[in-house]
Design brief:
Radius of gyration: 23 Å
CATH topology: PH-domain like
CATH class: Mainly Beta
Mean pLDDT: 90
Order of helices and strands: HEEEEEEHEEH
Number of strands: 8
Largest sheet: 8 strands, mixed
CATH architecture: Roll
Length: 173
């Protein structure tokens, strides 16, 4: 382009060629990204153990992994001296489903799953007032694979992880 006169036919043809190359590169990038998403789902599908939970196929058109990671589920023991216990869980948030599991070695034992975003709602809570860890939040599942509605109290190790989880769980895809 630098060696071509700005108003010449060659400059116009070069601009068209550059635009066509740009479109081809974008299309290639998009297809590579799609293949990586499919590969990620195939690998995840091999690592999930649904056990007694109704299994779901992971590799379907339009589905992709949005976010994943470990959290702690808080449980209160109902006794005279109520005590908080922590269970390590792992969440995989796909574009249309949330999978809740426990990680054992490299495998994930699925505990539950729910449609996303229709059956999931995230809510902040005043953890300090309730005596809960600072980075706690509520995860409402209005309907899930193992039964009816439930609310989970989840906690992250860091504040930014909590904010990230709350943002992705509150998104509408």
């Amino acid at each position: 382009m630098k060696l071509t006169k700005p108003e010449s036919d060659s400059a116009t043809n070069l601009e068209k060629a550059i635009q066509a190359i740009h479109e081809v590169v974008q299309e290639c990038d998009q297809k590579v990204r799609k293949m990586k998403e499919i590969e990620e789902l195939v690998c995840l599908e091999m690592l999930l153990d649904f056990g007694n939970i109704k299994s779901i196929p992971l590799v379907i058109s339009g589905r992709f992994l949005m976010h994943k990671g470990p959290l702690k589920q808080l449980r209160m023991t109902s006794s005279v001296h109520s005590k908080i216990t922590f269970t390590n869980i792992y969440l995989h948030l796909l574009s249309d489903i949330l999978i809740i599991s426990s990680k054992r070695d490299e495998q994930f034992k699925v505990q539950d799953h729910a449609e996303f975003p229709s059956q999931i709602r995230c809510e902040a809570l005043k953890a300090e007032v309730l005596g809960l860890p600072e980075n706690s939040f509520l995860l409402h599942l209005s309907k899930r694979s193992t039964g009816e509605a439930t609310v989970l109290i989840l906690a992250t190790d860091k504040r930014d992880a909590k904010e990230t989880w709350m943002k992705v769980l509150s998104s509408k895809k």
